[in-house]
Design goal:
Structural class: alpha/beta
Largest sheet: 9 strands, mixed
Strand content: 15-25%
Oligomer: single chain
Strand order of the largest sheet: 9-8-17-16-18-19-20-21-22
Helix content: 25-40%
Radius of gyration: 27 Å
């Protein structure tokens, strides 16, 4: 249903494999991982056969102690007990009879529910399905909605056993209206600006070559200067074998060099891989190897951060022809934080970046003569928004240095010196700034963190405030799809806002069948979390 290529569940086991075990009045129950493939196009009969084989194999190991397995997996002691949502098939010995009286068995035991699970029980009238959930993560409404969707899915799947599972509807009748809302908000057929970001940048070069494109460290570079510099970098990369979708690592300090290198990689037809020099060397080497970056650009300051690199100053070339770049070609590969495991790469195409630049331009408020702050780490996807929107719209990108990102007073001085008008930052930054210190910024676009009502009220008094993070208030408020939106905060409460628009369809599913409300799905906006390794995403 969620588009995963493999199912990973927790399956409770009795742990009793002999007559002696059955008679022993002790607890031998165990919890083991049940995993099996879910091929595209598999139907209910296929999955039933596959699951049957997987369960039969797992039964051979039901005495393997769960705590030993967790130790071998390297899990912290007592941190986790489940491998995924559990499915508990309750055994029944038949109807309870006491003479003429007939008893009804009810499961009233209390189980450890880390996330959520399903109990399947055979009763005198049929099959009973119960959904259990951790109340700290899910509320009653979410649990009931998932239960209705699951029961409806099972009923439809039984009636249509030969239909591919991913094409069987799972949204209940009470969710049809919500599905319509999601489809409306994800409607992205609106006409956007023509051309990729590089093409729009070049158009601005032709219109106003002397206009300031980049401001960094007190130094201003015009559109013509940035264009010539990035052209030289691009030709040098092409001479080194960089072509369509070649990965090029950028381990460069914050500043004009980084943005010029991004444009150079794009003009050469490649995809850049941001490598923050402040990251541990082990992480940088992993990203270089995992992304397949054939060339890594460095400066003398960052050369020691990676095993091998090419100095940016030595790459430039005046000779060579630059290729045409298509919208379906990769623009960049960016890595997740790795907070839940090994960092995962996300590959995003030029068409996605162009869509982002079109839709977020009126939100950020960039146009010729407007200066936008570049604050986010270039290894964070928010930096793509800064660069793409500003340079495609003909504005000026003011890049905060590493010191200015750490020191609020230094940042305020830089904002004043560069004449910053708009900024896209995290709400926590506003928590250490005062509106009067950055009075020149009249438009704030906030994301990546929850925007609190008090903070929003404080800053909207003197400027426009946009919330792009979404509206979840508690873990149970999981969105069934992901879409790029911007909400203009017009009242003191950040959730009382008007939707602006969407950048592109952002939910990735192999089937058009909608998932139940609140069901975890593989979804992405350029470029958030991708569950399962590097994949190309066209948004």
């Amino acid at each position: 249903m969620a588009g995963a290529a493999e199912a990973l569940l927790s399956l409770p086991m009795t742990g009793r494999v002999s007559d002696t075990d059955l008679r022993a009045r002790v607890t031998r129950a165990n919890m083991l991982p049940l995993r099996f493939p879910v091929p595209t196009g598999a139907n209910l009969l296929d999955l039933a056969h596959t699951a049957h084989q997987a369960v039969a194999e797992l039964l051979r190991h039901q005495r393997y102690r769960g705590e030993r397995l967790r130790r071998e997996l390297g899990w912290p002691e007592g941190d986790r007990w489940h491998f995924g949502p559990y499915v508990n098939i309750l055994p029944r010995a038949g109807e309870l009879a006491f003479g003429d009286c007939r008893g009804v068995a009810r499961d009233v035991s209390t189980r450890l529910v880390e996330d959520f699970g399903v109990l399947v029980d055979r009763t005198a009238t049929g099959i009973e399905i119960t959904v259990e959930a951790n109340p700290a993560l899910y509320d009653r409404a979410w649990t009931r909605a998932v239960h209705r969707s699951l029961v409806g899915f099972v009923e439809r799947a039984v009636r249509e056993p030969a239909t591919p599972v991913r094409r069987i509807g799972v949204a209940g009748d009470d969710e049809r209206g919500l599905v319509a809302v999601v489809e409306e908000w994800n409607a992205t057929a609106a006409v956007t600006e023509a051309g990729l970001v590089v093409e729009r940048f070049r158009a601005r070069v032709g219109e106003a070559p002397g206009a300031v494109a980049l401001w960094s460290g007190g130094r201003a570079l015009s559109y013509a200067e940035v264009d010539a510099w990035s052209d030289a970098v691009a030709r040098g990369l092409v001479a080194r074998g960089v072509g369509a979708e070649s990965r090029v690592g950028l381990c460069l300090p914050r500043g004009a060099e980084m943005v010029v290198a991004v444009l150079g990689v794009w003009k050469a037809g490649g995809a850049y891989v941001p490598l923050d020099p402040e990251y541990p060397s082990e992480r940088l080497e992993f990203m270089v190897a995992d992304s397949g970056a054939g060339v890594v650009l460095v400066t003398e300051v960052t050369a020691g951060r990676v095993a091998s690199g090419v100095l940016l100053d030595e790459v430039g070339s005046e000779a060579g022809v630059l290729p045409e770049v298509g919208g379906d070609q990769l623009a960049y590969v960016i890595y997740t934080s790795g907070s839940t495991g090994r960092p995962k790469g996300v590959a995003v195409a030029h068409a996605s970046v162009a869509n982002l630049a079109s839709v977020m331009r009126p939100v950020l408020g960039v146009e010729p003569g407007v200066t936008a702050l570049q604050f986010a780490s270039f290894s964070f996807d928010a930096a793509v928004l800064d660069v793409a929107v500003t340079l495609a719209a003909g504005g000026t990108l003011a890049i905060a240095s590493a010191e200015e990102r750490r020191d609020a007073s230094a940042l305020a001085a830089m904002v004043e010196a560069a004449g910053v008008d708009v900024a896209s930052v995290v709400p926590s930054l506003l928590g250490v700034l005062e509106p009067g210190a950055v009075a020149g910024i009249g438009n704030w676009v906030l994301g990546a963190e929850r925007l609190e009502a008090g903070l929003a009220a404080k800053w909207r008094a003197a400027a426009r405030v946009w919330n792009t993070y979404g509206r979840p208030r508690r873990p149970s408020s999981r969105l069934r799809c992901c879409w790029r939106t911007a909400l203009r905060v017009r009242t003191r409460h950040p959730r009382s806002a008007a939707r602006w628009g969407t950048s592109a369809p952002t939910s990735w599913m192999p089937s058009s069948a909608p998932c139940p409300w609140g069901f975890p799905v593989s979804c992405i906006s350029p470029a958030t979390v991708w569950p399962g390794g590097m994949s190309t995403v066209l948004v």
